[in-house]
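Run folding on both entries below.
>entry_1
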Amino acid sequence: MRIFGMVVRCLLTASVLLSILASGLDARVVQFRVERRAKVLDGKSFAGAGAYEMLAGKVEFALNPALPINRSIVDLTLAPKNTKGEVEFTADFYMLKPVDPAKGNGRLFYEVGNRGGKAMLRVFQKAKVSRDPQTPEEFGDGALMNQGYTLLWMGWQWDVPEGQMRMDMPVATDHDHAITGLVRGNFIPNSSAPTQPLADRNHLAYAIADANSPDDFMTVRDRPADPPRTIARSKWRFVDDSSVALDGGFEMGRIYDVVYRARDPRVVGTGLAGTRDLISFLKYDRTAANPAPGIRFAYGWGVSQSGRFLRHFLYEGFNEDEHNRIVFDGVIDEVGGAGRGSFNHRFAQASRDAEEFFNVFYPVDMFPFTDAPETDPVTGRTDSLLSHAEARHVAPKLFHILSNSEYF
């Protein structure tokens, strides 16, 4: 990671409530609501970029489901709508920018947070990890800030643990009736325990539709390829909306699956659309509504899960905004492997990945795998990660950074 930070650094050579209305914008950033604003390190000057400030708050979005560019967002048409027929949602944001925009370098560097976290300052500025940096150690050596970059984070998952960057995503319904569907939880206990969580990595779980549904079942295996053995329904039960219990407890090292009927799927694809629209707004809006004027180029960076998010973002056509303009000029996919992820389907669990033993059989490693066209030998289908972006002339400069883990 330290070597990677050095490489990319060379490549990249009292709360105040302020509401900034983005009126009349088709990018549908409806409101950029700054809830906290403060000078970074008491106004310390970062080389030629001068003093920096921190802005944090909420971004309010609205999407028109009828627009062709939004039709790929699963269940968007089933979400609640305002009087304009738009679907509304909000997300946390956190920004570090030069106080004087004229001293910035005109470049936005956006981290797609891995499960709602912040790693950019640690990787690129050798800083101590912090959700809300305050001290010199938490800003590190200032490598990016000395060059005048505007740094940005935004929540893009609804289900991350408390305290992480989050997006409040709309719930899809069927004419005001709850939608239900089967959801699978998967876990391998590190030690014997009476209960286990339904969701991945302490995330929020989809709500249980019926704790006594005949559709619910639990299985256990010792190896991923072993036939699963069903555990009698009388021996396990839901403790609450987030965990299950098993008579005699769960055994260390065994692979358990729980399939249950859930309700209220979130429109998870709004995470992709919100990313598109926020970056487009900051990059192209020239009104006083833009808190970071002067941005000419935008770069996206993601690690592992969030690297896969960026791959998915490119594949599904989100690097083109509502005005057919390019969103990210450059994308750095670090250890995202060849996969994408559960980022745009009903009851998607965005945290799930594809491990050797854990989280097996989730929709993560999906064709196509390569930037250039390839043909699936089973289906005969030919496609590429950049097929849409290249056809629409919105392909970014793309860096894939892999370790031996991704190859294996």
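>entry_2
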Amino acid sequence: MDTGKASVQMDEGDTPAGREQNLESWDFNAQTEEWRKDFDKKLLRKVDMRLMPTLVVMYLLNFLDRSNLAQARQGSLEEDLGMSGTDFNLATSIFFVGYLLMQLPSNLILTKLRPSLYLGTSCCLWGVVSTCNAASDSFTHLIVIRFFLGFVEAPFFPGAVFLMSSWYTRAELTRRIAWLYSGNALANMFGGVLGAAILGDLEGAHGIAGWRWLFIIEGVAAIGFSFIAAVALPNYPHTTKWLTQEERAFAAWRLAQDINEVDAYGEKTIWDGVKMAVRDYRLYLFVLLQHVSLISQTFQYFFPTIVGTLGYGKITTLWLTAPAWFATFLVSVCVTLSSAKTNDRSLHIICLMLVAAIGNAIAAGTTVVGARFFAMFLMPMGSVASYQIIVSWVANSFPRPLVKRSAVIAICNMIGNTASIYGSYMYPSKDGPQYTPGGSANAAICVIVALLALLLRYVHKWENKKLDKAEAEANVVATEDGKVDMAAATGTQRSGFSCGEGLQRYNVSLLSVPLGRVKGDAAAFDILARQTCAAAARATEHQIAALVDDVAKGEALVGMGWD
């Protein structure tokens, strides 16, 4: 779709609902394609340098503080706190109870606050709580601290994905989410290395056990970086002061070009977003996909224990966890580039999950050291690398409006992560050293993830065919008296509208219109009509109002993401 001038409402306040400042219109369509590409590249480089390194380091610290319990187990943690049986499984799973309780409210609140301050504060809080693990002198203390750790860590990952989706187009978002999720593999790799170094060199230093030093060092690192993050992270394109006015306008314009709709900051309430999300049946398919995918990854919270079945000492075991996670990082980068280049999600997920299934089957079926070590490369390379594609698929498939996207991301993360609560019991100590039940179950689960990805591939193909057919049949034209002729549109579903009165038409796909009337839609369509129609300046207020009102009363197809 081609558009006219991009008139962007700039907000210089601290929140999207703050005071607005009108910015002059920038006619980016009047520029040459070469100019737009050069300007786009310059803007992306500027945003990437501030946003991506900060988020990757934050996620590395986030996952370190979440998973360092697995490294601490290789020290004297269980002995010092009197843990036995499934106590470790409970300590692992209780984290996700707090994590889930905060997921949805956190991401919805984020739409009303400055992301830089909110995510930076979250980083500081999880660093403080993680450090408190070092003060535990009983299993009960550990459980309470782990619960609150999940509560304060919850805002980060869905919040980071939401923030990136407010800056990047769908094609760009896939690669950036992969860069972010690479922090998972890096955290596991560095976690093993740091754990080996700390438990090996600081055990008993100043009368403090090595596992306590582990929590102290990694917690303090998060606290220190939180202040950097609060300054370095941008907020939204229209509120970022280190961009020029032209760059802010272009940042908003390019997102509107990507999906034919602009982010409506503060125009819909939090619960509008939830209602729009739950009315979209694709949400439930993605929730199931993300949930089952996370079950397949529960092994990583026991990875040092599983690697320990190779028969090496505890410190050597931690060193041996690093190569598998480094390989996972490399695979993640490669599949991300491939997915972005081919615009494919489902086939990449299917192939990676089959690799993970093979790894789990080998680990569950043999005690041969070489074969099991090889399997421990395949397990994270498949399941962890595929998850980053799943997360980007979710964000791409629900691009606008802002509150709906935020709600979808939060709901998928919230319900998806319930898998980690019961998944933490898939590897009880009594099943060692082979862990046949857990490994066999995970192999089957990986196959289920692959089948769900295949199902979603065909769901999107089917929906896109419906969208193409509806757009071909719809022909909405504003007449001279301001009324809208809908005779050419079939049924009750309207895929778009065209602007102009004997002028060139600019078809606008209504990619995020909820089913039925939602408060605020008319205003949103008014803005959309004005920003996407070159003829808007020549249309009367009555014509625009009539067109907007008619579309808002109907139902519209929801735009699909790539398959």
